[in-house]
Amino acid sequence: MITLEKDDGLWIATIDRPDKANSLTGDMLEELAEIAEAATDARALILTGRGRVFSAGADLDAAKAGLATSPLWERLSGAIAALPGLTIAALNGTLAGGATGMALACDLRICVPEAKLFYPVMKLGFLPQPSDPVRMARLIGPARTKLILMAGQKITADEALAFGLVDRVVPADRLMGTARDLTADVRSAKPRVARDIGRLCEG
Q1: Which string of b and e fits 104-125 if b means at least 16 CB within 10 Å?
Q2: Among 166, 172, 183, 171, which residue's Cα sits nearest to residue 11?
Q3: Of the chain's two ends, which shows fewer C-beta atoms within 10 Å, N or C?
Q4: How many other C-beta atoms can be found within 10 angstroms of the C-beta atom of residue 66?
Q5: 184: Cβ contacts below 8 Å, ≥ 6 apart
Q6: Does residue 203 register a pLDDT over 80?
Q7: SS3 letters for 58-81?
Q8: Are 128 and 136 in contact (CB under 8 A)?
Q9: Chain centroid to CA 98: how far?
């Protein structure tokens, strides 16, 4: 239920379970982590979903069985964050729960106007994965992070753009084209140059 496309240095991983709101099972989460760990030679990695939802987070049955607090989430986000190439979350719809971590770990986030972002850990009684609040606060500040994680607010695409949680809002029919366009320079550059610029941007 994860598809992987490789095209001249660009890897596109797609969550393909639209009938279940692209909710993630343990096997799917492990497959995503393995893709991210293997993408060290990719110039760019795009994460997206099939249908109208990027991901609803953990599959309900899998969450009840322990997936909601699995170290696989942190393994995935850590692997994405460590990649030397450009990483983009192309959010084709709503982003919820633990799936937020993989988007936060990406260098860029773009979304469709209909997307909403929420992370209801407080309501569900779980702690977020350790790196998620840190990455979110780095992007939008502690108060807005608490607005999402503690006050349980759903953030619209326009609010996410204003906060700095996403970098662009684009129509659905232009989402993947825009994501591909954003990888053009890094795909044509020398890998060392792209890697070094990425490191400089991190300070």
Answers
A1: bbbbbbbbbebbbbbbbbeeee
A2: 183
A3: C
A4: 10
A5: none
A6: no
A7: ECHHHHHCCHHHCCHHHHHHHHHH
A8: no
A9: 10
Q: Give dist(CA 94, CA 116) in Å, integer.
A: 5
For the stretch 26-79, pLDDT in tens is: 999 999 999 999 999 999 999 999 999 999 999 988 887 889 889 999 999 999
Distance from C-alpha of 68 to C-alpha of 71, rounded to nearest angstrom? 9
Q: How far apart are CA 108 and CA 147, in angstroms?
A: 21
Say which amino acid occupies 6. Answer: K
With CA atoms as reference, report the closest residue to 90 among 177, 193, 164, 186.
177
Which domains are seen in the chain, by residue range? Answer: 2-202 (3.90.226.10)
Angle subtended at Cα 82 by Cα 157 and Cα 88, rounded to the nearest 5 degrees: 30
Q: State what percent of residues in the chain have pLDDT above 90.
A: 83
